[in-house]
Design goal:
Length: about 450
């Protein structure tokens, strides 16, 4: 490491607090200095395959000059202006239109945020707002699923059902409740997981009373919880349950949106339409912070027809930020022009087929994925599916030594018990030879770590 990099590392340890911070993990931190396509380079000159699109978000890949140019042009013209009621700007208008045109048939309008947690906060508030407008102010509860991740602001953290994110920040916000996830590999009794997990939501609605439940929030594919792909029966049944009990369905598409699963938005895989969609990450491919919620016609109408005394008093300084929206619009243009949604479906199937070969390794219990989103779950015993505590962290370290960045979801004691899951979400444009190299490195890393 040269003198500049050493100085930066010292300043980092002294003055920068990182997400999920612990100082021990900064002792030998990778200092990224450049990126190109599916590759990242560190200050010591090493190249790494970006196997997780950094944080599931660099959909079009690194080093896209077109996005930098879109930001520069907008900054030179109008870097920022308020988008509060009574004001607007062209990039926000055009991006909202572009998103609605690519979302679900019932989608009507977009409210912009700066990231995923803020999007889910906005979704929760909008669900409560909707029911107050409908004359049902008691409908305030939010139901989520265990292993779901929705962010770490207070309400989003309360919907998130990964205990490590909550332990040091409790108590949780009231009226958030979790139920069993659609996790086929770990479903008790190995029965019909789709119906059973949807019925768990209905049981919770019955327990709390439909007149108290505002919404169910669900990731189409659970991302940070271990890339858990639901059975095909799950979302159609969940939609029917929500309709029957008059409960809104919020699709958390912060990870799955904008082509990640091989569709612009993921619930289309099952022919289901949500009432509210939360999005972020892939909307700008991470080049600038941006997120938002998409409202269905039904929910949007509640805002549009509200009297002044019941107006939508939700706001943020950077909602509809012109520069962020200009980059988002250019990013959507790249995704559409280069056919990256379709490419995600095709290349994702090849990635999953490659990962399936790793089932030959004794400690690989499950391989799963959809589009450019996949995971390998590790176990100590394939017959009992018992977890192998700590193995995932060793694999991640061994993969990094070999030039691959990925992420693990540590196993849990339950419910349900689970093994460490190695998560992959490479950029949608990742070349096929690089995908093959990902599988090769991962296999080598698992063997090295298990040995």
């Amino acid at each position: 490491m040269d003198d500049l990099a050493a100085d930066l590392a010292a300043l980092d340890r002294g003055h920068l607090i990182h997400p999920l911070h612990h100082p021990s993990e900064q002792a030998h931190a990778k200092l990224f200095v450049s990126g190109s396509g599916a590759m990242l380079r560190t200050a010591d000159g090493r190249d790494y395959i970006d196997g997780l699109s950094c944080l599931w978000n660099v959909n079009v890949g690194h080093g896209r000059a077109e996005l930098a140019q879109a930001a520069a042009r907008q900054m030179e013209t109008l870097a920022y202006a308020s988008a509060y009621a009574g004001f607007s700007n062209e990039p926000a208008i055009r991006l909202a239109d572009a998103i609605v045109s690519r979302a679900y048939p019932s989608s009507a309008a977009v409210y912009f945020t700066t990231g995923g947690a803020e999007s889910n906060e906005s979704a929760f508030k909008t669900a409560r707002y909707f029911w107050k407008r409908m004359g049902k102010p008691g409908k305030v509860k939010i139901i989520s699923r265990r292993y779901g991740y929705h962010g770490v602001t207070m309400a989003a953290m309360s919907a998130t059902a990964l205990p490590g994110y909550q332990k040091m920040f409790a108590p949780m916000v009231p009226d958030f409740h979790q139920v069993a996830p659609p996790y086929p590999y770990r479903w008790e009794g190995n029965g019909e997981c789709g119906a059973g997990a949807a019925d768990a939501v209905e049981a919770a609605i019955g327990e709390y009373g439909a007149d108290t439940v505002a919404a169910v929030i669900a990731e189409p594919v659970m991302g940070a919880g271990g890339v858990i792909v639901p059975p095909d029966t799950y979302f159609p049944r969940l939609r029917e349950i929500c309709d029957r009990h008059d409960v809104l369905l919020i699709a958390d598409e912060v990870i799955t949106g904008f082509g990640r699963t091989g569709r612009w938005f993921a619930l289309g895989h099952w022919g289901v339409e949500p009432d509210i969609v939360s999005f972020a990450k892939g909307v700008t491919s991470g080049y600038l912070p941006l997120g938002g919620i998409i409202l269905s016609t039904r929910v949007h109408r509640a805002l549009e027809e509200a009297p002044m005394a019941e107006r939508y008093m939700h706001a943020a300084t950077y909602s509809g930020h012109p520069t962020c929206c200009a980059v988002g619009l250019a990013n959507l243009g790249i995704i559409a022009r280069e056919g990256l949604v379709e490419r995600s479906a095709g290349m994702g199937a090849k990635l999953l087929a490659g990962l399936e070969t790793l089932r030959a390794l004794p400690c690989v219990g499950d391989v799963r994925g959809l589009g450019m989103l996949a995971a390998v779950e590790l176990v100590a015993d394939r017959a009992t599916r018992a977890p192998a505590p700590g193995l995932g962290a060793k694999v991640v370290a061994a993969a990094a030594e070999r030039g691959l960045i990925l992420r693990q979801r540590a196993g849990a004691e339950g419910p349900p018990v689970s093994g460490d899951s190695l998560c992959l979400a490479p950029p949608l444009m990742t070349p096929e030879p690089v995908l093959e190299r990902i599988v090769q490195i991962l296999g080598e890393a698992i063997v090295a770590a298990a040995g």
